Amino acid sequence: MSSPESVASVASVDSVVRVRVPAKVNVQLAVGGRRADGFHGLASVFFAVGLYDEVTAVPSDRLRITVEGADAAHVPTDDSNLAAKAARLLGARHGIEPNVHLHIVKGIPVAGGMAGGSADAAAALVACDALWGTGSSRAELVELAAELGSDVPFSLLGGVALGEGRGELLTPVPVAGTFHWVFAVADGGLSTPAVYGECDRLRELGGGSADSDVPAPAADPVLLAALRSGDVTALGAALSNDLQDAALSLRPGLADTLRAGTDAGAIGALVSGSGPTCAFLAKDAAAARTLAEALESSGSCQAARLAEGPVLGATAVN
Ligand code: C5P
After folding, report:
1. Residue partners of 94: CB distance under 8 A and separation at least 6
2. pLDDT of the residue at 168
3. Among this protein's residues, is 106 annotated catalytic?
4. Whose CA is nearest to atom 21 of ligand 1?
């Protein structure tokens, strides 16, 4: 892995900075009670996978966002874009006018539960820091990232990490080897707040309270051991997502997608984060290719994408 310092120093000599940033899947997403601030306490085991967005930063007369890629039409190009917010936040911290053109090439499904928007924000922080020579430490960028969104710090860090609090308090998790994933991309996205809201509604429907009655979330020691030893079968069996029932409730057709992958030999299957992308773990690279073909021909998803992980977080690639 290249150090954050080397990334910044290589990139700062250029007036164009290109940053590659990965998607994530939560191999465990334990959702606790709703907190007073409306967020949910989490024990989230984030896992960075090789589906990438690229963000290119060049000087401009104003802050501009352009987006390219399959779902580009669904990504806002105004101030609500998280990458724009990231540039403004970093600029404000250093007294710099955020006059930058950020061009985003989307490879991560939009609103798919794979932290695509968070990835762009993390990439924008790294790119603008290099372009403006602000020389932020990785800890300073992580602090700004947490202000932007719960998943943004992980998009900076990459690898595998346990996220606590609302997901922003990260501890790296040791992993052995490489895992082979297939992601079934759905038609259309799901709103993350809507899925959390549905999770609360289902909990209340079950007779409890969505805040006080929910046990404190905790990382699963069996899952952590599977990651540490590189045991793909054990990881497949331990995958879990407390938002899955809520995503299935809002999008019942996802049950067909999960079944299609399991029938085609996946050794683990779950909804990725708040969905609707479904994630499947394969035994090896060949099994992943077979699985992707089976998912595509099942008609239960829009496309199947192969990705390995874990991979690095947001990294300059000039
Ligand atoms: O942090 P972020 O802006 O990505 O969160 C988007 C939304 O997802 C929040 O507004 C909230 O509705 C929900 N969320 C939550 N608990 C978390 C993270 C996100 O309820 N830990």
Report:
1. 132, 134
2. 97
3. no
4. 166
Domain boundaries, the chain: 17-173+311-316, 179-308
Q: Which of 120, 151, 200, 242 is catalytic?
A: 151
Q: What is the model's pTM?
A: 0.94
- Residue closest via CA to ligand 1's atom 9 equals 193
Options 3.20.140.10, 3.40.50.2020, 3.40.640.10, 3.30.70.890; CATH of 179-308: 3.30.70.890
Q: Is 151 a catalytic residue?
A: yes
Q: pLDDT band at 12, cuts 50/70/90?
A: very low
Note the CATH architecture for domain 17-173+311-316.
2-Layer Sandwich (3.30)
Closest CA to 34 of 278, 198, 238: 198
Q: Which is the closest atom of ligand 1 to the Cα of 165?
A: 21
**Is the distance from the beta carbon of residue 280 to the nearest atom of ligand 1 less than 6 Å?**
no
Residue 134's pLDDT band (cuts 50, 70, 90):
very high
Cis-peptide, bond into residue 22, ω within 30° of zero: no
Write the single-letter amino acid at 304.
Answer: A
